[in-house]
Structure formats: structure tokens, C-alpha cells
Fold this protein.
Amino acid sequence: MTEGNALDTVFSALADPTRRAILAMLLEDDMAVTDVAEPFEMSLAAISKHLGILANAGLISQEKRGRLKWCKLEPDALKAASVWMQGFGQFEPVNLEAFERYLERELSEG
């Protein structure tokens, strides 16, 4: 995947509020897919689709642990997007603590 395509994939994944909420949850700790799905009023299949998009963008990784599939945040995937935005000279590097606060505000308002 070229750098431009990778950025498109990351920004596309971040464009959805459900996926941003999932990332906010994963900032706390790794979670089983069933735990990720719990607060959302949608099917497990719909959550799995969101998780697949996040994994495809490199924002999360998934691994099988016993009978459960677990999700883990991969914050390095945001670095390329941060570097790209810095090229405009108007943006600071991604601060994961600030990103977490932003996502928490988004969740509380939603």
C-alpha cells in the first residue's frame, strides 16, 4: 500500500464516530470483541465490520486468545497522519493524551 493510500485508509477509518469511540475504549486497555460491542446498539457483525476497517487501517490489531478475539490499539498508525498534517505547519504532533481527551468529549456529547 502506498503512503497516500495508507493515509486515505487511516483518515477514512477515523471519519466514523463509532470507530472513534472504539479507539477511545481501546486507549484504556486491550479488549475482547464482545466487550467492545457491549456499549453499542448494533449487532456483533456490525461491530466486527468496524473492527475490520480499523485493523485494515493499522489502527488496531486483533489476536485470538483462547476462544476470544482481542483488540489492541496500535497508536503508531496515527504517526503517518500526524506527520502529514505537520507538513502544513498548522498542526502539532499527535498527543495521545490529548487525543484520548478529545475522544472522551466526543463520546460524552454523543
Summary: The chain has six helices and three strands. The first strand starts at residue 31 and ends at 32. The helical segments are 3-14, 17-28, 33-37, 44-56, 77-86, 96-109. The longest helix spans residues 96-109.
